[in-house]
From TrEMBL:
<comment type="pathway">
    <text>Carotenoid biosynthesis.</text>
</comment>
<dbReference type="GO" id="GO:0016020">
    <property type="term" value="C:membrane"/>
</dbReference>
<keyword id="KW-1133">Transmembrane helix</keyword>
<dbReference type="InterPro" id="IPR017825">
    <property type="entry name" value="Lycopene_cyclase_dom"/>
</dbReference>
<dbReference type="GO" id="GO:0016117">
    <property type="term" value="P:carotenoid biosynthetic process"/>
</dbReference>
<feature type="transmembrane region" description="Helical">
    <location>
        <begin position="74"/>
        <end position="91"/>
    </location>
</feature>
<keyword id="KW-0472">Membrane</keyword>
<dbReference type="GO" id="GO:0016872">
    <property type="term" value="F:intramolecular lyase activity"/>
</dbReference>
<feature type="transmembrane region" description="Helical">
    <location>
        <begin position="34"/>
        <end position="54"/>
    </location>
</feature>
<feature type="compositionally biased region" description="Basic and acidic residues">
    <location>
        <begin position="105"/>
        <end position="114"/>
    </location>
</feature>
<dbReference type="GO" id="GO:0045436">
    <property type="term" value="F:lycopene beta cyclase activity"/>
</dbReference>
<keyword id="KW-0413">Isomerase</keyword>
<feature type="transmembrane region" description="Helical">
    <location>
        <begin position="6"/>
        <end position="22"/>
    </location>
</feature>
<keyword id="KW-0812">Transmembrane</keyword>
<feature type="region of interest" description="Disordered">
    <location>
        <begin position="94"/>
        <end position="114"/>
    </location>
</feature>
<dbReference type="Pfam" id="PF18916">
    <property type="entry name" value="Lycopene_cyc"/>
</dbReference>
<feature type="domain" description="Lycopene cyclase">
    <location>
        <begin position="6"/>
        <end position="87"/>
    </location>
</feature>
């Protein structure tokens, strides 16, 4: 299995699992984040590959490079741009207390220093 096939499968599964949450999030914020992460990937992957910190097996990649970074490397920032906000939203919803404003102990005015 090539890296491209694996990346497409993982991204498709991520979108399928998190579609409901992704619809609630602002698309512009997710797109801006994806663009920034892809630019950072472009710069730093190119530098790390040029420094011979890692190499790719030629039979596992397409051979299409963007300024020195293989095309397959851009699936990771896309997965992060999609997955992290979804996890943040889902986990944040679970940790939010279910108390009402007039419930005992929710008035913060009497917590100050006396």
């Amino acid at each position: 299995m090539t890296n491209l096939v694996l990346n497409v499968l993982v991204l498709a599964a991520l979108v399928a699992v998190s579609w409901r949450v992704l619809r609630r999030l602002g698309a512009s914020a997710v797109v801006r984040t994806a663009v920034v992460l892809c630019v950072l990937t472009l710069v730093f992957d190119t530098l790390m590959i040029a420094a011979d910190l890692y190499v790719y097996a030629p039979d596992k990649i397409l051979g299409v490079y963007l300024w020195g970074a293989p095309l397959e490397d851009f699936a990771y920032p896309l997965a992060a741009a999609l997955g992290v906000p979804v996890l943040w939203t889902v986990l944040g919803d679970r940790r939010r207390p279910a108390s009402t404003p007039d419930a005992p102990g929710t008035d913060r005015r009497d917590e100050g220093v006396r």
